[in-house]
Design brief:
This protein is α/β, with parallel strands linked by helices. The protein has one domain (3-131): MoaB/Mog-like domain (Molybdenum Cofactor Biosythetic Enzyme, Chain A), CATH 3.40.980.10. The chain contains four helices and six strands; from the N terminus they run ββαβαβαββα. Strands 2-1-3-6-5-4 form a six-stranded mixed beta sheet, with helices on both faces.
């Protein structure tokens, strides 16, 4: 599985991670590049999902996705709320562009860890469905 990670921050570029400023068009263009040109299976964004004027990651994501996948964002907020009531303030969205699943995570390291813990069990299956290679799985009881 090919995965891309974009950190949305007003900081500088460090290491091997792509760090974009909180600018709608720059985020949008990077999402399109990763989905269309790099053909990544999953693109995970961190940051820019809050309530400030500069938090525009959900808007950038909504402008490029072709299908919304609300269950992923919903379960991350529900499970996050069990740890902190602030989790419901995240406006992150998830959706599909071409064959790429785009997932917005909050900016804090702890929230990213918690969100990934919740969604990783279904991420491979989601990618397999998009690629048309999924094998039917029995639902959990």
């Amino acid at each position: 599985m090919k995965v891309g990670v974009i950190t949305i921050s007003d900081g500088a570029e460090i290491g091997v991670y792509k760090i974009n400023p909180d600018e709608l068009e720059m985020i949008r263009l990077e999402l399109v590049r990763m989905a269309d040109e790099m053909e990544l299976h999953s693109i995970i964004t961190t940051g820019g999902t809050g309530l400030s004027d500069r938090d525009v990651t959900p808007e950038a994501t909504l402008s490029v996705i072709e299908k919304n996948v609300p269950g992923i964002s919903e379960i991350m907020r529900v499970e996050g709320f069990k740890i902190t009531p602030h989790a419901i303030l995240s406006r992150g969205v998830c959706g599909i562009r071409k064959k790429s699943l785009i997932i917005n995570l909050p900016g804090s390291t702890k929230a990213v860890e918690q969100g990934l813990k919740v969604i990783l069990p279904c991420l491979t299956h989601a990618v397999e469905i998009m690629k048309g290679t999924a094998i039917s799985h029995e639902p959990h009881k």
